[in-house]
């Protein structure tokens, strides 16, 4: 089951999974990038492509953003194919705005689709995975959340939350042989079409993005859903032909004072001692600054 599979990354994952023999639920409400409008066409078009190539697929146009409709997506898999074995939580929208200008509605809409949607869909499948003692989740996170980006407080918060959700699922369900991993995809799609391209540096970054097609993400996503993969609780990035294992937060450095701390000693001792290990205020493009290969 692939959400947001009517185009871009989700479409290529659905096509690749079907080519490997999977029976696929292609889920997409057919909305615009901002979440407006509904159209059953995109999901059905991908289903038609899969069937034309000899595969099996069914379309779902239910939203991930409400628990009862997320349940209906899982039900579509059960009713059509009799079971569910893998889920790619890929559905998403953007409402980019600088934090100090962001409206409550812009915050809520993005959190609801990405983070709530990932939870609702995952939770709906969990009893079936538990009962059959198998299953795999692949969640789409983003370096906007893992590292940072301008004008995306809503998206970044949701995507970092997804990484934590995935880790919690991996921990809670490992005893049932259920796995959960994340991918931070670099690919030119509707979701990256709003990347700023005003300065020469930004324009150069966009040109690098355009080299990275959605099809590059599919091999890792399909592999992580496969029974042949035993990987669990990891965060990957895919950047053109690179597969990157991302770090997860761990202690970097510590200071200790046997008598405890006061605001004065924190200022005089702790912060200066830790300062050499502080992280720079970076955005995704500062860290991934080399050309894709």
UniProtKB/TrEMBL annotation:
<dbReference type="InterPro" id="IPR057326">
    <property type="entry name" value="KR_dom"/>
</dbReference>
<feature type="domain" description="Ketoreductase">
    <location>
        <begin position="1"/>
        <end position="194"/>
    </location>
</feature>
<dbReference type="InterPro" id="IPR002347">
    <property type="entry name" value="SDR_fam"/>
</dbReference>
<protein>
    <submittedName>
        <fullName>Short-chain dehydrogenase</fullName>
    </submittedName>
</protein>
<dbReference type="InterPro" id="IPR051687">
    <property type="entry name" value="Peroxisomal_Beta-Oxidation"/>
</dbReference>
<dbReference type="InterPro" id="IPR020904">
    <property type="entry name" value="Sc_DH/Rdtase_CS"/>
</dbReference>
<dbReference type="Pfam" id="PF00106">
    <property type="entry name" value="adh_short"/>
</dbReference>
<dbReference type="InterPro" id="IPR036291">
    <property type="entry name" value="NAD(P)-bd_dom_sf"/>
</dbReference>
<comment type="similarity">
    <text>Belongs to the short-chain dehydrogenases/reductases (SDR) family.</text>
</comment>
């Amino acid at each position: 089951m692939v959400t947001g599979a009517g185009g871009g990354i989700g479409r290529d994952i659905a096509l690749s999974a079907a080519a490997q023999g999977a029976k696929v639920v292609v889920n997409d409400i057919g909305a615009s990038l901002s979440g407006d409008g509904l159209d059953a066409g995109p999901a059905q078009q991908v289903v038609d492509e899969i069937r034309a190539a000899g595969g099996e697929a069914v379309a779902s146009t239910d939203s991930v953003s409400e628990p009862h409709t997320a349940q209906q997506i899982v039900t579509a898999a059960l009713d059509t194919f009799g079971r569910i074995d893998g889920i790619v939580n890929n559905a998403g929208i953007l409402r980019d705005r600088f934090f100090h200008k962001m409206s409550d509605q812009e915050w809520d809409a993005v959190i609801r689709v990405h983070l709530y949607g990932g939870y609702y869909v995952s939770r709906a499948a969990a009893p079936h995975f538990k009962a059959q003692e198998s299953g795999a989740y692949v969640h789409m996170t983003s370096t906007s959340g893992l590292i940072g980006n301008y004008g995306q407080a809503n998206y970044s918060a949701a995507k970092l939350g997804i990484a934590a959700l995935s880790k919690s699922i991996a921990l809670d369900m490992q005893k049932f042989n259920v796995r959960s991993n994340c991918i931070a995809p670099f690919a030119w799609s509707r979701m990256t079409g709003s990347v700023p391209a005003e300065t020469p540096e930004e324009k150069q970054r966009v040109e690098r993005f355009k080299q990275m097609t959605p099809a590059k993400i599919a091999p890792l996503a399909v592999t992580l859903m496969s029974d042949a993969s035993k990987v669990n609780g990891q965060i990957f990035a895919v950047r053109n032909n690179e597969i990157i294992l991302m770090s997860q937060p761990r202690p970097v450095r510590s200071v200790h004072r046997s008598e405890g701390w006061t605001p004065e000693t924190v200022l005089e001792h702790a912060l200066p001692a830790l300062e050499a290990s502080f992280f720079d205020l970076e955005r995704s493009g500062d860290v991934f600054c080399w050309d894709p290969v």
